[in-house]
Design a protein that fits this description.
Length: 405
C-alpha cells in the first residue's frame, strides 16, 4: 500500500468535537432519507471524510485499529445522527475488524480495498440471510451456491436483508459449495458485477434508509482465492465477533435514545400550553419522564463503558449463541455472566427502547406526529430487537453457560 493511502487511513477523527460535527451532519439529512427510503450517501460521505469507515483497519495494514471504548463513542455518535448510516458503517468497520483478527480476504484484493477506501467510501458487508432460511444465527445451510468452474467459482442464489445493498463495493456472500465434500463460507464478489441485481424489498417500520434489500446473484464469476470456507459441520454459522466491534450495534441504538432525549428536552422547553402559561419542562411529570429516560440511557452507557474497559484490558468475552454456550463457561467464571456481549446487547437495547417509549408516551399526539422526530426515533430504536443475538438466544446461551458448565 502506498504511503499516501496508509496516511489517509490513519486520519480517523475520534475527538468529541469531531464526532459531534459528524452527528450534526447525519442528523441534518436523516429525516429526508427516512421519508423516502433513499440511500444516505451524504451521511456515508461524512463518515468517510472523518476517517471512520476504516478506523478498525489493523496497524499492519496501514490503519490504527479501533479500541472498544472508541467503538462505543463512534457508533453512539453516528446512531444519534442517523442510525441507518451508523448500521451501514458498522458493517464496513466490522469487515475490517474481522480481517484484522482473522484474515480471510485475498491479500491483493484487500490491498485494493484499502487503496479504494483511502479515496472514497468503500462499503463492505457479509451478505448471509436468505428469504427461506432466515437469519443464519438460527442454524441451517444457505441455498446460495458457489459452483466450481475451470478458473474459479460461479456464485448464484438470492439473499435477503443485505444492509447497505445499493452502496456495497464488495459483498462477502455466505455460500455452500457444489463439491462432493461440501464446504461453507464466504466468497468475495465485487458489488458492480453485472450478475448482481438488487431488489428493493426493504419496506420497514424503522431504519428505512439502511438499504437492507434482497440481492440476487446470477452466475457471478470470481477467482478461486476469493472463497474462504471449511467443511460443512466443522464451523458454527455465527462465529464469535471480535470484542470491540460487537459493541457497535448496541452503541448505535444508545445513540438513538440520546437523540430522542435531546429532542424531548428541546420540545419540553418550547412547548407552552395556554392553559399552563409556562413551558411543560417546569412540570414535575415531565421532569420525571426526562429523569427516567436519562436513567435508562445512563445505565446502558455504563454497561457499554464497563465492558469496553474489559475488552480493552484484554478480558474479551465472545458473543454467546446456543452453539457456543459451553465454550463460554470459563469466560463467565472470569468476568461474570452479565459481562457476556450477548447480554450487553440485550440490556442496552432494552434500556434504549424503554427510554424512547417513555418519552413518546409522555407527550401524547406530538410523539406520533411525522413533523416531529419522536416517531422516527421510536421506529428506529425498535429495530434493535431483531439484531442477533436476539433476546431469547442471548438468555438461552447465558443460562446454559451457568447451568451446564
Amino acid at each position: 500500500m502506498s504511503a499516501v493511502a496508509a496516511a489517509a487511513l490513519r486520519e480517523a477523527r475520534l475527538d468529541a468535537d469531531s464526532l459531534k460535527a459528524v452527528t450534526a451532519t447525519l442528523a441534518a439529512h436523516a429525516p429526508t432519507h427516512d421519508a423516502d427510503a433513499s440511500f444516505p450517501w451524504p451521511g456515508i460521505h461524512a463518515v468517510h471524510e472523518a476517517g471512520l469507515l476504516t478506523a478498525s483497519v489493523a496497524e499492519h495494514h496501514g490503519g490504527r485499529g479501533l479500541s472498544a471504548r472508541e467503538t462505543v463513542d463512534v457508533f453512539a455518535a453516528l446512531g444519534e445522527g442517523d442510525p441507518s448510516v451508523a448500521l451501514i458503517s458498522a458493517m464496513t468497520v466490522a469487515q475490517h475488524a474481522f480481517q484484522a483478527a482473522s484474515p480471510t480476504w485475498p491479500a491483493g484484493l484487500y490491498e485494493k480495498v484499502l487503496r479504494e477506501s483511502a479515496e472514497r467510501p468503500t462499503l463492505l458487508n457479509a451478505v448471509r440471510a436468505e428469504p427461506e432460511l432466515g437469519a443464519p444465527a438460527r442454524g441451517g445451510l444457505p441455498a446460495t451456491t458457489a459452483r466450481r468452474t475451470a478458473d474459479g467459482w460461479s456464485v448464484s442464489g438470492r439473499k435477503g436483508f443485505a444492509t447497505g445493498s445499493e452502496g456495497l463495493a464488495y459483498h462477502a456472500v455466505w455460500v455452500v459449495t457444489d463439491e462432493a465434500d461440501q464446504r461453507v463460507g464466504h466468497v468475495i464478489v465485487p458489488g458492480d458485477d453485472p450478475g448482481i441485481r438488487i431488489e428493493r424489498t426493504w419496506d420497514h417500520l424503522g431504519m428505512r434508509a439502511s438499504s437492507t434489500h434482497d440481492v440476487i446473484y446470477d452466475d457471478v464469476r470470481v477467482p478461486f482465492e476469493n472463497f474462504s470456507g471449511a467443511p460443512v459441520g466443522t464451523v458454527p454459522n455465527n462465529g464469535a465477533i471480535p470484542g470491540a466491534i460487537a459493541l457497535a450495534v448496541p452503541a448505535l441504538y444508545l445513540g438513538v435514545a440520546k437523540a430522542a432525549l435531546a429532542a424531548f428536552v428541546e420540545f419540553a422547553g418550547a412547548r407552552t400550553p395556554t392553559s399552563l402559561g409556562r413551558p411543560i419542562a417546569t412540570l414535575e411529570r415531565i421532569q420525571t419522564v426526562a429523569g427516567e429516560a436519562h436513567a435508562q440511557i445512563t445505565q446502558a452507557d455504563l454497561v457499554l463503558g464497563a465492558v469496553a474497559a474489559q475488552i480493552d484490558g484484554g478480558r474479551v468475552v465472545p458473543t454467546p449463541t446456543p452453539g457456543n454456550a459451553g465454550a463460554l463457561a470459563g469466560a463467565s467464571e472470569r468476568v461474570g455472566p452479565a459481562a457476556s456481549l450477548g447480554l450487553v446487547k440485550l440490556l442496552t437495547s432494552r434500556g434504549a427502547i424503554a427510554a424512547v417509549q417513555g418519552i413518546v408516551a409522555a407527550i401524547g399526539n406530538p410523539g406520533l406526529t411525522r413533523s416531529l422526530p419522536f416517531e422516527r426515533h421510536l421506529r428506529d430504536v425498535l429495530c434493535a430487537r431483531p439484531h442477533p443475538p436476539q433476546d431469547d438466544a442471548a438468555l438461552l446461551a447465558a443460562g446454559r453457560s451457568i447451568l451446564l458448565p
